[in-house]
Amino acid sequence: MSLRDAGPPIALVVVFGIFAVLSPDFRTISNVQNVLDAAAVLAVVTCGISFVLMTGSIDLSAPGIMGASAITVALLVANNRNDNDLGLIGVAVAVLLAAALGCLSGLALVVLKVPSFMATLGVSAVGLGVATLLFAGVQPNITDPMLEGWAVERFLGLARLTWIAVACVLLGWLVQRYSRLGRYAFAIGGAEEVLALSGVRVAPYKVAVFTMAGAFYGLAGVLVTSQLGAGLVQAGRGYDFSAITAAVVGGTLLTGGRGGILHSAVGVLLVTVLTNGLVQVGVSPYWQGGVQGLIVVAAVAAAVIPQRRRNQVTK
């Protein structure tokens, strides 16, 4: 393990220790459980965005896709707007819709040659449009006991949606570590031209990465609906920036080819611990966005400086 890989876990331990000293309430078991529960949705979103970052692309579609998924699942499970009661089928349909929107981002990238940040920003707008049409001016409140139970019922001290997030992180790591898609995602971000020259068709794997990312965003939208007890168009607001922050802080490079799911998961914990700790010590929530922005700049700078030194020509 390089120093760069060890940096985020060490920073997590240091930050946790500092806040534990500053606030007695921070180091309680109940607060640790709250931190893990609060990190659940962000962890699922970060799983998706990490694969996109590994390919060297940027994905800004999470807010729109999560909004479309949240409204869809709220209208398909038991709710106050209609007589639907599809349960897990409704969850599956919402995730499939999200995967389709993610696929649309990938197709716009590889077929129309639209830059990834513009393609995904457009898909986010499409998702928000779909969510607004389904919302129709009346908020759908869920009454499905299964979906409500994900946020309320606990297993080993943690909410069920937290265990779902753990399963997503494990699944993402398995795909990254043992599947061709995971290996090629790294290769696309590291040296796409070399991979193409070796005979690999890069385009289908890019589309597959964005499709999988969309599915993760869709599941995150379902989890937000479980937490809020209702489907909201703005269910995914701010999660794109938070997920990119967590991934970069954890060691996943914006330029691709380095990092991964476990790196990003550490970044999620670091960001969540920092947010929780700032609240515990009495820092205004209005400062938290600025702190996250400074962290992103510092993390990107720390990742770019070594590369810049390697690229320098010695006279």
What does this structure look like?
- The chain crosses the membrane at residues 6-23, 35-54, 60-79, 86-111, 117-136, 157-175, 207-230, 236-254, 261-279, 285-305.
- This protein has a single domain (3-8, 29-304), classed as ABC transporter involved in vitamin B12 uptake, BtuC.
- It contains 13 helices and 2 strands.
- The protein is mainly alpha-helical and 315 residues long.
- β1 and β2 (158-159) form a beta hairpin.
- It has helices at residues 3-22, 29-38, 40-54, 62-76, 88-110, 116-135, 145-152, 160-178, 180-197, 202-228, 239-250, 261-280, 288-311; strands spanning 154-155, 158-159.
- α3 (40-54) runs parallel beside α9, α3 (40-54) runs antiparallel to α10 (202-228) and α4 (62-76) packs parallel to α6.
Question: Which H/E pattern describes the elements?
Answer: HHHHHHHEEHHHHHH
What is the overall pLDDT average? 86
Oligomer: single chain
Shape category: globular
What is the percentage of strand-forming residues?
under 5%
DSSP strand tally: 2
> Which fold name corresponds to the CATH topology?
ABC transporter involved in vitamin B12 uptake, BtuC
How many structural domains?
1
- First-residue to last-residue Cα separation: 31 Å
What would you say about this model in short?
With 315 residues, the chain is an all-alpha fold. It has helices at 3-22, 29-38, 40-54, 62-76, 88-110, 116-135, 145-152, 160-178, 180-197, 202-228, 239-250, 261-280, 288-311; strands spanning 154-155, 158-159.
